[in-house]
Design a protein that fits this description.
single chain; mainly alpha; 0% strand
C-alpha cells in the first residue's frame, strides 16, 4: 500500500516506458531503413548512419513533445 504523500507511481512508470519505447522505435526504424537502403543502393554505411541520426533526432523531438504535453495536462486538471 503506498504511503501518504506519494505521487501517482503507475502513470509515471507508464510515461517512462512510453518515452523509452519511442526512442527505441525511432532509432531502430532509422537503422533498419538505412541498412535496407544501403543494401539496395550499395552505399554502405552512409545511409545507415544518416537515418540512425535522423531517427534519434525524431525520437528526441517526439519525447520532448510528449513530456511538454504531459506537463501541460498536469497544470490544467479536468474540472
Amino acid at each position: 500500500m503506498p504511503s501518504k504523500g506519494s505521487g501517482p507511481l503507475p502513470p509515471t512508470l507508464a510515461l517512462i516506458g512510453q518515452l523509452g519505447l519511442i526512442m527505441v522505435v525511432c532509432v531502430l526504424g532509422g537503422l533498419l531503413a538505412g541498412w535496407y537502403l544501403d543494401k539496395l543502393l550499395n552505399s554502405s554505411p552512409v545511409l545507415t548512419l544518416v537515418l540512425a541520426i535522423a531517427g534519434a533526432a525524431a525520437g528526441m523531438l517526439a519525447v520532448y513533445r510528449l513530456v511538454m504535453k504531459t506537463i501541460a495536462d498536469d497544470d490544467h486538471p479536468p474540472a
